[in-house]
Design goal:
It comes from Microlunatus phosphovorus (strain ATCC 700054 / DSM 10555 / JCM 9379 / NBRC 101784 / NCIMB 13414 / VKM Ac-1990 / NM-1). The chain is mostly beta strands. It has 2 helices and 8 strands, in the order E-H-E-E-E-E-H-E-E-E.
Length: 126
């Protein structure tokens, strides 16, 4: 199940997660590094990005931030966007974000914003 996250709600969503992973790609090879990301205005910022990820983003600025669930069978937060790195600091302009977990993990914690008596992946419609 996937639950879209509005860009303007990313700071609140990101506060529910710990470290994440920056995924970059160049020439068909994906590089993954651990990051501590924060929302700054309408962008996401993470420090400590190395030369390999920087080179990938120069060639292909499309990137993904992935934040694994804090609880077993919880939701992973995925943020797609475009990124640049200056002096080791990533600045990402997010384009889409979603909380996701496979249907097989529906026995995990309730969906964010789910009704208190919901036993599966219920969530309010907006």
């Amino acid at each position: 199940m996937s639950i879209p996250v509005r860009i303007e709600d990313l700071a609140q969503a990101l506060a529910e997660y710990d470290s994440g992973y920056l995924l970059t790609n160049r020439a068909g090879r994906t590089k993954v590094i651990t990051v501590e990301a924060v929302v700054s205005g309408n962008r996401i910022v993470a420090e400590g990005v190395g030369h390999g990820s920087t080179a990938n983003l120069v060639e292909n600025p499309q990137c993904t931030l992935m934040f694994p669930p804090a609880e077993r069978h919880g939701y992973t937060l995925l943020i797609d966007g475009t990124g640049t790195v200056v002096e080791g600091t990533l600045t990402m302009e997010p384009t889409t974000a979603v909380r996701h977990r496979p249907a097989a993990h529906a026995d995990g914690p309730p969906a964010p914003g789910a009704a208190a008596d919901c036993v599966n992946d219920c969530r309010p419609l907006s």
